[in-house]
Design brief:
alpha+beta, 2 domains, two-stranded antiparallel sheet
Length: 143
């Protein structure tokens, strides 16, 4: 039986995996990955990036997040120190933030214990305006 081919055995696959490892904790789009590789002098074609990232996702090395129907998917390295968490999406700048705190975790526990429903927190997103955009809005409204 042939050994399972892992994504990072190609040069491009290794570059993409290294990109995720160096940016662990950060959500990255395909465009982010392509830009990162280009800026580091190792450009990889967009089609290859899509294919390799899909393989990494299938293997559980990265986690795919589909935030909404309008935005493209984003991905994050699923290293040993990555735990599942909820997300906050800014409707102004489109930034996606991790929301890891005991209070939100208690809401997830409450929903399971009292409503018999297991929340998929990788697909749960709270929409609003981030602190940075709120500050910018305050500066704009002061003028």
């Amino acid at each position: 039986m042939a050994e399972k081919t892992t994504t990072y055995r190609t040069k491009q696959g290794r570059l993409i995996l290294d990109c995720f490892i160096k940016n662990k904790g950060r959500h990255m789009t395909i465009d982010d990955i392509c830009s990162y590789l280009k800026e580091n002098g190792t450009p990889v074609g967009t089609t290859t990036v899509y294919r390799q990232v899909q393989k990494l996702s299938d293997e559980g090395i990265v986690t795919k997040y589909s935030v909404d129907q309008e935005s493209g998917a984003c991905y994050q390295y699923s290293g040993e120190d990555c735990k599942m968490h909820f997300h906050l999406k800014c409707v102004k700048c489109s930034e996606l933030f991790h929301a890891s705190c005991n209070y939100i975790d208690s809401i997830e526990s409450h929903i399971f214990e009292h409503h018999g429903f297991q929340v998929d927190n990788s697909k749960t997103v709270f929409y609003g305006v981030c602190q940075s955009c709120l500050r910018k809005d305050k500066k704009l409204s002061v003028k």
